C-alpha cells in the first residue's frame, strides 16, 4: 500500500500544480477583463449616455455622462420615466412607434430630441435594446446614446432655413433612378412627411401637365449638353392647389464626362408670380383706364370740334362776304367769336396733347437743331402778342445784348424735336408777354452751362408768383389764381412744357418774386454737329399755319366737288365756301354708301370726306375708292374732327391727299381746294 501510495504522490502533486496554474491564469484573465471592462465603462461614462429602465419605462440606472448632459442629478432621474426629458419635439406617432418596436423585443435605432433641465434642447443618436427578464414575459430596456446636438443644430438650422426661405433640394442618382428629397422639398410638393420610393417619373407626375415637357427637356439637355438647367414651372399639390417653383441644378460627371448624378435647388416663387400677375393685371387695368381716358378725350374733342367747325367757319364766311360786307361793329363782334372759338380749340388741343404725353404715346423726332434759327421762328410766331402788348423781347447771348437777327449767327446746335422746342419757347415767351405789366420788358438769355448743354432763360417784369404757390406751378389746370383775371389761359401749358423739356433730356426751373417778375429757364442737350442734315427742315409745321395772301386761280373749265358729311351745318359751310369759287359744281352725301354711289355717277374732280360717318366710316370708304380703277387719280381730302396724330398718320397711309382737322380755317381750306383742283 505504501509503495502504491508513494507511486501516486507525484501524479497528485502534478494535478494539483496544474489546477493551481490554470486557476491563476483564469484569475489573471478575469482581472485583465475586469480592467478592460472598467476602462470601457470609464470611456463610456465620458462619451456615451447610458440608462436602463424597467418594463414600465421607469428609470433604474443612469450613468454620469447622461446626468452631465441633461443637467439632472442621478437622484432626480431614478424612479422617473423618460417623460422628464421629453422635449415635445416629436409627434405622438414617433413615441408610440418606438415603444411598439422595443416592447416586441426588437432593437430600436433613431435620433431623439430631449430637453435639458434648463430648457435647452439636445439631440442624441439612440439604440434601445430590450433585455428579457428571468420570467421571459417582459423586458428591461438598456439605452445607449451619443449626443449629436452640434451636428443636429446645423441640420436643424438648414431645415428651418429651407422652411423659412421656402427652398428644397433633390438629389437624383441617374443610374439607379433613385431620388432623395430634402424635408423642404417634400414640403414644397405639399407633403408633411417624407415621400418613399421616389424616382424621376414620380416627381414628373407632380408637375403641372402643361409644364412637364419644358422641365423634362431642360433636364435632358443638362445631361446631354454638360450645362446647368434653370426652369420655372408649376406643381399640383395633393389638395389640388397650384404652386410655382424655380429649379436650378446641374449634373455631376465621371472622368468620361458622363452624367451620373444631378443636384437641384428648388425655390417657391408663388408669391413672386402672384405679385407679377397682380402687377400685370394692374398694368392692364391702367392701360384700359388710360385707353378709356384717351377715347373719352378723343370723343370729346370730336364732339366739340364739330360745332366749333360751324361756329368758326360761318363766322369767317361772314367776315369774308364781299357781297354783304359787315359793319365795323359786326366785324369786331365776329372777331370776338373767332377768338373765343380758337381759345377753346387751343384748350382741346392741349388737353389731348397732355393725355398723349401722360400715356407715353408721344413720338418725338429728335435731331440736330439750329437753336438760333428756332429762337427767331419762335419770336416770329409770337409776333401777334408782341404787337398786342407792345413789348419787344431783348436778346442776350452770354450776358451780352445783341440784335434779334444776330441769332442766326449763334452757332449753337441742340439735340431736340424742332416742333416741340418751338412749342416750349412759344409757350414761355407767350406767358412772359401775357403776364407782364404795361411798358414792361422781356429778356431772352442764352448761355452755355457746360460742353453738354445750353441754358435758355426767359425773364419778365410781370406780376410774379407768390413763393407758397411756386411748388404748384407745373400742376395741370392750376393757374394759381390767374383764372380770375382777364388773361386767357388753359392752365396746362407749363405742364406740357415741363414734360417736353424732360422728355428731350433737359430740365426746367422757375424763380419768381411777387411784383418783380419771373425767370423761367430750361436746359437742353447740345449737339456736336455743325451742319443740318439734308432732310431737316426748319419750316413751320402746317399745324402752325401762317396766314398768307393767296391768289385764287380762275379757270373756265368746270370742276366737280363731292363732300361726304353727315352734319348738315358742316355741309352748308363747305357748300357756301365752294359756292364762292367760280366754275365748281358741288354735290353732297350724308353717308359713305350714298357718297360712293355719287362718286361713281358724277366722276368728281375732288372728294372731301368726313371720317366718323354713320355706317361705313370714311376710312373704309377711302379703301374702296382706292381700289376702284375709275377713281384712281382723284384727290381725296379727309375733313375730320378726329385730330389725334395716330388717326392723321393712319389717314395719310391709307392714301388721303390731305388730312385737315376741324374746325377748319376757311381761307386755308379754300387754298387747299384750289391747289388740288388746279395743280400747277
Question: What do these coordinates show?
Answer:
This protein has a 6-stranded mixed sheet. The chain has 6 domains: about 1-45; about 50-155, Beta-Lactamase (2-Layer Sandwich), CATH 3.30.450.20; about 165-270, PAS domain (Beta-Lactamase, 2-Layer Sandwich); about 280-345, no CATH class; about 365-545, Heat Shock Protein 90 (2-Layer Sandwich), CATH 3.30.565; about 560-675, Rossmann fold (3-Layer(aba) Sandwich). Strand 17 (about 510-515) and strand 18 (about 515-525) form a beta hairpin. With about 675 residues, it is of the alpha+beta class. Helix 9 crosses helix 15. It is built from 19 helices and 23 strands. It is elongated and about 165 Å long.
Please give the largest β-sheet.
6 strands, mixed
* Overall average residue pLDDT: 82
The CATH class designation of the largest domain is: Alpha Beta
Second rung of CATH, namely the architecture of the largest domain: 2-Layer Sandwich
Number of domains: 6
List the helices and strands and how they pair.
Blueprint: H1 2-47, E1 49-53, E2 59-62, H2 64-70, H3 74-77, H4 92-103, E3 108-115, E4 121-132, E5 139-147, H5 149-165, E6 167-173, E7 178-181, H6 183-188, H7 200-204, H8 212-225, E8 229-236, E9 242-253, E10 259-268, H9 270-319, H10 328-359, E11 366-370, H11 371-381, H12 383-389, E12 394-397, E13 400-402, E14 413-417, H13 418-434, E15 442-450, E16 453-460, H14 493-503, E17 508-513, E18 517-525, E19 559-564, H15 568-579, E20 584-589, H16 592-602, E21 606-609, H17 618-627, E22 636-640, H18 645-654, E23 658-661, H19 666-677
Parallel strand pairs: 12-15, 19-20, 19-21, 21-22, 22-23
Antiparallel strand pairs: 1-2, 1-5, 3-4, 4-5, 6-7, 6-10, 8-9, 9-10, 11-14, 12-13, 15-16, 16-18, 17-18
Amino acid at each position: 500500500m505504501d509503495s502504491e501510495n508513494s507511486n501516486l504522490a507525484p501524479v497528485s502533486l502534478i494535478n494539483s500544480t496544474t489546477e493551481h496554474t490554470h486557476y491563476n491564469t483564469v484569475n489573471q484573465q478575469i482581472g485583465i477583463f475586469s480592467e478592460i471592462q472598467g476602462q470601457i465603462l470609464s470611456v463610456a461614462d465620458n462619451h456615451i449616455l447610458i440608462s436602463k429602465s424597467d418594463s414600465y419605462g421607469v428609470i433604474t440606472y443612469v450613468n454620469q455622462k447622461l446626468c452631465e448632459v441633461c443637467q439632472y442629478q442621478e437622484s432626480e432621474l431614478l424612479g422617473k420615466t423618460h417623460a422628464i426629458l421629453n422635449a415635445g419635439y416629436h409627434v405622438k406617432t414617433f413615441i408610440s412607434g418606438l415603444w411598439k418596436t422595443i416592447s416586441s423585443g426588437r432593437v430600436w435605432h433613431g435620433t431623439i430630441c430631449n430637453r435639458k433641465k434648463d430648457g435647452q434642447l439636445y439631440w442624441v443618436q439612440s439604440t434601445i435594446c430590450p433585455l428579457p427578464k428571468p420570467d421571459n414575459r417582459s423586458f428591461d430596456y438598456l439605452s445607449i446614446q451619443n449626443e449629436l446636438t452640434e451636428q443636429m443644430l446645423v441640420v436643424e438650422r438648414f431645415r428651418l432655413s429651407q422652411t423659412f426661405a421656402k427652398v428644397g433640394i433633390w438629389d437624383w442618382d441617374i443610374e439607379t433612378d433613385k431620388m432623395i428629397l430634402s424635408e423642404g422639398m417634400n414640403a414644397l410638393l405639399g407633403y408633411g412627411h417624407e415621400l418613399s420610393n421616389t424616382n424621376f417619373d414620380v416627381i414628373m407626375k407632380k408637375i403641372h401637365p402643361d409644364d412637364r415637357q419644358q422641365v423634362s427637356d431642360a433636364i435632358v439637355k443638362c445631361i446631354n449638353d454638360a450645362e446647368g438647367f434653370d426652369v420655372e414651372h408649376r406643381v399640383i399639390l395633393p389638395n389640388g392647389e397650384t404652386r410655382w417653383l424655380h429649379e436650378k441644378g446641374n449634373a455631376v460627371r465621371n472622368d468620361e464626362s458622363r452624367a451620373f448624378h444631378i443636384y437641384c435647388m428648388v425655390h417657391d416663387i408663388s408669391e413672386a408670380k402672384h405679385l407679377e400677375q397682380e402687377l400685370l393685371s394692374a398694368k392692364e387695368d391702367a392701360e384700359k383706364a388710360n385707353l378709356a381716358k384717351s377715347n373719352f378725350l378723343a370723343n370729346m374733342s370730336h364732339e366739340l370740334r364739330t360745332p366749333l367747325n360751324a361756329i368758326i367757319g360761318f363766322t369767317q364766311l361772314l367776315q369774308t362776304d364781299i357781297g354783304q360786307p359787315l359793319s365795323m361793329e359786326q366785324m369786331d363782334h365776329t372777331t370776338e367769336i373767332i377768338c373765343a372759338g380758337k381759345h377753346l380749340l387751343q384748350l382741346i388741343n392741349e388737353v389731348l396733347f397732355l393725355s398723349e404725353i401722360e400715356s407715353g404715346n408721344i413720338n418725338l423726332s429728335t435731331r440736330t437743331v439750329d437753336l438760333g434759327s428756332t429762337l427767331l421762328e419762335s419770336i416770329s410766331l409770337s409776333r401777334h402778342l408782341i404787337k398786342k402788348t407792345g413789348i419787344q423781347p431783348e436778346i442776350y447771348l452770354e450776358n451780352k445784348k445783341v440784335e434779334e437777327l444776330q441769332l442766326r449767327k449763334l452757332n449753337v446746335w441742340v439735340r431736340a424735336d424742332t416742333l416741340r422746342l418751338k412749342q416750349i419757347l412759344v409757350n414761355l415767351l407767350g406767358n412772359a408777354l401775357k403776364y407782364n405789366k404795361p411798358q414792361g420788358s422781356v429778356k431772352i438769355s442764352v448761355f452755355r452751362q457746360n460742353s453738354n448743354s445750353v441754358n435758355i432763360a426767359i425773364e419778365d417784369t410781370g406780376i410774379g408768383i407768390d413763393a407758397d404757390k411756386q411748388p404748384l406751378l407745373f400742376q395741370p389746370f392750376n393757374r394759381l389764381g390767374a383764372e380770375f383775371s382777364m388773361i386767357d389761359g388753359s392752365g396746362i401749358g407749363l405742364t406740357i412744357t415741363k414734360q417736353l423739356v424732360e422728355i428731350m433730356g433737359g430740365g426746367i426751373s422757375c424763380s419768381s418774386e411777387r411784383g418783380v417778375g419771373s425767370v423761367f429757364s430750361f436746359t437742353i442737350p447740345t449737339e456736336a454737329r455743325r451742319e443740318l442734315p439734308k432732310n431737316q427742315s426748319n419750316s413751320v409745321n402746317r399745324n402752325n399755319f401762317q396766314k398768307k395772301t393767296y391768289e385764287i386761280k380762275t379757270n373756265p373749265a368746270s370742276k366737280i366737288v363731292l363732300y361726304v358729311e353727315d352734319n348738315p351745318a358742316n355741309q352748308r359751310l363747305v357748300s357756301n365756301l365752294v359756292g364762292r369759287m367760280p366754275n365748281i359744281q358741288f354735290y353732297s352725301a350724308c353717308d359713305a354708301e350714298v357718297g360712293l354711289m355719287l362718286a361713281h355717277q358724277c366722276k368728281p374732280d375732288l372728294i372731301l370726306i368726313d371720317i366718323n360717318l354713320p355706317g361705313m366710316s370714311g376710312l373704309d370708304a377711302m379703301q374702296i375708292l382706292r381700289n376702284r380703277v375709275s377713281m384712281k387719280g382723284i384727290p381725296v381730302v379727309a375733313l375730320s374732327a378726329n385730330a389725334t396724330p395716330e388717326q392723321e398718320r393712319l389717314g395719310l397711309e391709307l392714301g388721303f391727299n390731305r388730312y385737315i382737322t376741324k374746325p377748319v380755317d376757311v381761307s386755308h381750306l379754300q387754298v387747299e381746294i384750289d391747289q388740288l383742283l388746279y395743280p400747277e
